[in-house]
Amino acid sequence: MQIVSFVWTRLAPPRGGTVEHHRTALNAYYILSGTFLVILFPAVYTIQRQPLFGGGGEPSFIALECIIIGLFVMLKRGYTWLVCQAIVLTALLCFLVALLVNGGIRTTALLATPLVLLCANLLLERRTTTYLYGISVVLVIIGVYWAERLHFLTPTQSGSVTLHTLALVLLMVGLTIFYLSLAFVQVTYSTAQVQEQSASLLRTVEKLQKIRHSLEQRTEELSTTNAHLVATQRQLAEAEKLAALGNLVAGIAHEINTPLGVGITAATTLQAITDELQEHYGSRAIRRTYFEAFLADAVAANHLLVNNLLRVDQLVQSFKQLSVDHFTLERRRFQLKAYLEEIVLGLEPRLRSGAHSVEILVDESIYLDSYPGALAQIATNFILNSILHGYPSGKPGRLRFIAGLYEEYVRLIYADDGIGICKEHLDKIYEPFFTTARDRGGTGLGLHIVYNLVTQKLGGTIRHDSDINAGVIFSLELPLYLEEREESA
């Protein structure tokens, strides 16, 4: 294999350089290869069965083979132009020798005429060079013709050369030159077109590279901007979550104030009548009627105190559970109606400020094994969106939650009777940062968060419908039991 690789490296066609230079070198390589093989098997004879170079052909063959090998070496070393000139001159010399050996212009000699011009055209690839060699051939033929006419050459074949033969030879040479000239023009034109297309392609490639570089920079900038936007979106989502929790805190605090105030009043009253009883007991002036009145007041105060403290404890526990659900989003089993009531209770101050009412039409038998914190964020966003967008004129609103069981799913519908959403905005309401109330504090993330929580966290679907002055309806289908594959999604 090493020997074969070595021989192939030495005998392989030349490579490198421009396209024209490479094509010329290949033409010379193939001409030399063909000539070498023809000479290596000396079976080429003239019509008269005479060797091409006369008697004693073997030394001539060996010398010619050595010349061809030398041209091979020069071609491999990069002397392409010199090798091409040598090949064409050798062809012209062979043509002249054929004329002399055949005794002048004969049919056999005419066969070499187009070969000389073809070699000149293939190897030198210049129209002027083809013309020069064509003129040289014509001059040689005319010279041989007159040499025969003046008896400087002795014909070896029978018959004399007439002027018609000379005209035929010149016509053949002229037609060959004309054909090669047309071919050269066509090749030159095609080459020019290819070069022009190549240059245009290179310019296009350069422009595309610049555009690609610009696009890469732009893509990098957009990636950085997108990363910032994602981070900002997460921060705003957390802010939305905190805002919703803030509303719950405000609602729970307001709800706690009433029973806590009543409890404090009851405790103060109980303390006052107890102090008064103690004074009367010290003076031993306690009458039966006074003591009975004291007992009645004490029992009533104690009743109020216990009931309102229990209410406060209930509200605190509710707030505690809601806050845990908001921040941890832990999965647990819960009753849908009771949980919606707790959410609405936390939003009572906002609802009362606009005289809005919330109706919860949910069967108490509906339980979900899911993420109540996600549901709390969804319901809170629905209610706050209705308050912010649905009633700009201050009209009292009627908000409703309606739920029903459908096989392994619960269909939860939220509806209001506000101004609704116009048709051109219906397809955009889930897009992040889309809002029509930015001047009133809207972030455009509320319904975007709702959509992600419903479809990803709760494994459900959400649909909506609305029209101007016809309110809005959101329909959620949520699984009663969140499967592991849906939970992991």
A few lines on this structure:
This protein has 489 residues and is α+β, with helices and mostly antiparallel strands. Among the domains are: 2-161, no CATH class; 329-489, Heat Shock Protein 90 (2-Layer Sandwich). It is built from 15 helices and seven strands.
Average pLDDT level: 72
- The CATH architecture designation of the domain at 329-489 is 2-Layer Sandwich
Q: Pick out the low-confidence regions.
A: 42-56, 485-489
Radius of gyration: 54 Å
CATH class of the domain at 329-489: Alpha Beta
Gross morphology is rod-shaped
Oligomer: single chain
Q: If helices are DSSP runs of H or I spanning 4 or more residues, what is the number of helices?
A: 15
Q: Indicate the CATH topology of the domain at 329-489.
A: Heat Shock Protein 90
Order of strands side by side in the largest beta sheet? 2-4-5-7-6
Secondary-structure content class: alpha+beta
Distance N to C terminus: 60 Å
- H-E string: HHHHHHHHHEHHEEHEEHHEEH
> At the fourth CATH level, what is the homologous superfamily of the domain at 329-489?
Histidine kinase-like ATPase, C-terminal domain
Describe this entry's structure for a reader.
There is one protein chain. This protein is an alpha+beta fold and 489 residues long. Among the domains are: 2-161, no CATH class; 329-489, Heat Shock Protein 90, CATH 3.30.565. It contains 15 helices and seven strands. It has helices at 2-11, 19-40, 57-76, 80-101, 107-110, 112-124, 127-149, 163-283, 288-328, 336-346, 348-353, 372-390, 423-426, 446-457, 484-488, and strands spanning 332-335, 357-361, 367-370, 398-406, 409-416, 461-466, 472-479. The chain has a five-stranded mixed β-sheet, covered by helices on one side. Helix 4 packs parallel to helix 7 and helix 7 (127-149) runs antiparallel to helix 8. The chain is rod-shaped.
